[in-house]
Amino acid sequence: MTVTPSISHHTAPADTQIRYANALTGLAAGDAWGYQVEFTSYAHMPAYPVAPPTGRWWVISDDTQMTLALHWALAEVTDFADIETVTDAIIRQFLLWQVDPDNTRAPGRTCMTSLRNLRAGARWYDTDGAVESAGCGAVMRLVPTAFAPQQYWLGLTALQAVITHKHPRAVVPALLLADATRHAPERRGRFLEHALTTAAQIYNGTSTWATDPYLREVLAPIIGDMSSYLVEGLNDGTADILTAAAGRLEQLRPLPPAEFGDPCAGIGEGWESASAVALALLVADLATTSDNDPAAAALTGPEGLAWAATSNGDSDSIACIAGGLIGSAHPEHGYWAAAGLTPTFEPRYADEILAAASQLPVGAPAD
């Protein structure tokens, strides 16, 4: 199926390219930082906060691997309007990741089950296709779709989610996170506020997402009314979790970082999409500040990754998502190095991140 868009943007300003590079570096660094302690409870952390990796390499997990797979899928597509072609490309890259010898780093059960079903011939929307799960695999890898052209980013974000996680509570948090990532420079320090505003627009029927033609076409195999679907994704705990995170943010703002404690407290552990996104937005709100706010952020970018990794939950995914969001908020070349963070990734992934950072997922001009 092909959707004819009304707008076409196929070149990106230089600062968008830089933001994409900063996002990829940030998510990989956060992933490696949290992967050290992914299954360690907050009470048994080796330090508070957890120190950055000290070995030869910063070892990333499935979060970065799947982000890169998604990037390469989008990079090979010349026409995002052709949804079937985009779907095939994403599935092909995900299936390559599924059997990659490096896929030994705690890959998500839902991702692996869904991909086994797709490899066997099911389509993602079949009852025996993608798992109807709200797991965080739908959100930890989405940075490339957040940087896609204006008319496609919403639909592509939903598509990459439903290929493995077709629950509304996976899709709606993915859309909220992609929205935050895409508009990060103007939302610094207010990510949770904007997410709640977007949720309110969905509830009161004023959200433009409900009428987005590409998003509607992507989800057509599994939904009837788009507005109802978006509301369902919020009603299933997402809105409550975002509200809890916003309340926690106000509690933490006056405190010194040493007193922040477990990021997950009162919100959730990030194993599913809604709490993973809420936690990342919380971290990013404390690690960035708006241009209109004269006060410095409570945390630097690297300190934000350290705090995100020191959690009682899915530490690598929380820190990965937070790192991508913090990086995308900064259009300055070499933001992470200037902030004092120079991770040394394994050569394979260092090369892939560098190559991906130079190639935004922009597709080709529409006719």
UniProtKB/TrEMBL annotation:
<dbReference type="GO" id="GO:0016787">
    <property type="term" value="F:hydrolase activity"/>
</dbReference>
<dbReference type="InterPro" id="IPR050792">
    <property type="entry name" value="ADP-ribosylglycohydrolase"/>
</dbReference>
<feature type="binding site">
    <location>
        <position position="314"/>
    </location>
    <ligand>
        <name>Mg(2+)</name>
    </ligand>
</feature>
<dbReference type="InterPro" id="IPR036705">
    <property type="entry name" value="Ribosyl_crysJ1_sf"/>
</dbReference>
<comment type="similarity">
    <text>Belongs to the ADP-ribosylglycohydrolase family.</text>
</comment>
<dbReference type="Pfam" id="PF03747">
    <property type="entry name" value="ADP_ribosyl_GH"/>
</dbReference>
<feature type="binding site">
    <location>
        <position position="316"/>
    </location>
    <ligand>
        <name>Mg(2+)</name>
    </ligand>
</feature>
<feature type="binding site">
    <location>
        <position position="62"/>
    </location>
    <ligand>
        <name>Mg(2+)</name>
    </ligand>
</feature>
<dbReference type="GO" id="GO:0046872">
    <property type="term" value="F:metal ion binding"/>
</dbReference>
<feature type="binding site">
    <location>
        <position position="317"/>
    </location>
    <ligand>
        <name>Mg(2+)</name>
    </ligand>
</feature>
<dbReference type="InterPro" id="IPR005502">
    <property type="entry name" value="Ribosyl_crysJ1"/>
</dbReference>
<keyword id="KW-0479">Metal-binding</keyword>
<feature type="binding site">
    <location>
        <position position="63"/>
    </location>
    <ligand>
        <name>Mg(2+)</name>
    </ligand>
</feature>
<keyword id="KW-0378">Hydrolase</keyword>
<keyword id="KW-0460">Magnesium</keyword>
<feature type="binding site">
    <location>
        <position position="61"/>
    </location>
    <ligand>
        <name>Mg(2+)</name>
    </ligand>
</feature>
<protein>
    <submittedName>
        <fullName>ADP-ribosylglycohydrolase</fullName>
    </submittedName>
</protein>
